[in-house]
Amino acid sequence: MVRPRLSCKVLRRSLRQSSLVIPFVCQTRLMYSAANQCPVSDEEPDVPHFTFSEEPLGLPASQGFGYFQGSPGLSLGPSNRFKLQAKLGFGTASSVWLARDCIDDTHVAIKILTGYATQLNRDRKLRELEVFQRLSSTSEGSSDHCARLLAQFFHPGIDDDGDHLCLVTELFWSNLQDAQATLQGIARLHKCGIAHTDIKPDNIMIDLGCHWTTGAIDHWVTENPPRTYLPERSLNKMVSVFVSQSFPPPTLDELQSCNFKLADFSNAQFVSEQTTDDITPLGLRPPEVVLGGEWNESVDIWTFGCMVFTLLTNCPLFKPMVSAEHDASEIDVLLYQMIIFCGEFFHEYFLQRCRRSLDYFQLDCRPKKFQRFVRKPFEKCISDSGCILNPVDMLGATDVMTKCLRLDPKNRATAQELLGHPWLMP
């Protein structure tokens, strides 16, 4: 039986989903593309397919993988300082583990990068470690609203996994949503010359240390012992993948007094030293990036505006899709949605600065694929989603979105300016 090819969406599925089907060459192609490497051939040789319940263990770093193959009970770091206790989750370039700091007698999270991502950090194609170091070394980076690096070290991998860069941080709950704390974190990054480029609800965390003591975490580990899936076939051997475990969600009382932080700097870029233009998922991508123009930290303001809509409605604002009726590509549709939602056309001086503008626009700055434009303001987008807001919140939310979602980045508000907006103030 031929298994379905793995799409980009499947590769980026969350850690709560399972059964990744990996065509070895196809996964390699995507990873190389994400790292700005030369693409591999589109020819489909007879290659093995592997099915993994979570992260794909046992595939080499040289082909875009190299996931950490450790287990609870293993001690890592200088003087074996950190003892692993449970796997908390995984992503496209790392797995995250709960660990006990045997020196400070506390619990921490260790993000263990794949061998491939570790090499990209060494080559400065990924900048996560550098971003943490910049935030730690400047007064502008000191903030209660950005994740903080406690330690970093390299751990030798096994087989062909390569070395693993290990980033030690505080423990967090994930998938929590606080717009103001996110904005404060963005402002701190921008003061340090850093663009996050991946602002979304999944990257807003809450400090677990607010209410969980060391004893409480130890009790949770005892009550939730590590488990593995059934052995799965990998490239040269069978592997056993640990099941991701998550802490119980915070109570309403806990949320009232906890500190929210912006986290996950794996896609962050130094604005003055950009290494890629391949940033943000397409539906969140600002127009200057879509059209191949110059970009800066204001890309985060655009994605923050999109995130405000998602926090209110639990739906994406922009939904790029192919339109057979208009013979339009996903990008054609996305640019059309930007025009009718944001209520403005692209100006000539902006399009002249974008190298791909002639692919989608006529010389008079009108889109090639669409002739009729019916304005759909943010108020209607929100109400059409089924979200009911009182008039004050509707006015405040749409005003914030309007200040963020300007087609020309020069016209967007800064993070610092938005912090003074009445709707975002505590």
Concise account of the structure shown:
The protein has helices at about 10, 25-35, 115-120, 130-135, 180-190, 215-225, 250-255, 285-290, 300-315, 330-340, 350, 380-385, 390-405, 415-420, and strands at about 20-25, 50, 75, 80-90, 95-100, 105-115, 150-155, 165-170, 170-175, 195, 205, 230-235, 240, 260, 270.
Structure report:
The protein is α+β, with helices and mostly antiparallel strands and 426 residues long. It folds into two domains: 75-179 and 192-227 and 238-262, Phosphorylase Kinase, domain 1; 280-424, Orthogonal Bundle (Transferase(Phosphotransferase), domain 1), CATH 1.10.510.10. It has 14 helices and 15 strands. The chain has helices at 8-11, 24-34, 115-122, 128-137, 179-191, 214-223, 252-257, 287-290, 298-313, 330-342, 348-351, 378-384, 391-404, 415-419; strands spanning 20-23, 49-52, 75-76, 82-90, 94-101, 106-113, 149-155, 164-169, 172-173, 194-195, 204-207, 232-233, 238-239, 260-262, 269-270. The strands form five sheets. A six-stranded antiparallel beta sheet has the order 3-4-5-6-8-7. Strands 9-11-14 form a three-stranded antiparallel beta sheet. Strands 1-2 form a two-stranded antiparallel sheet. Strand 12 (232-233) and strand 13 (238-239) form a beta hairpin. Helix 5 (179-191) runs antiparallel to helix 9 (298-313) and helix 9 packs antiparallel against helix 13. Residues 1-45 have low confidence and may be disordered.
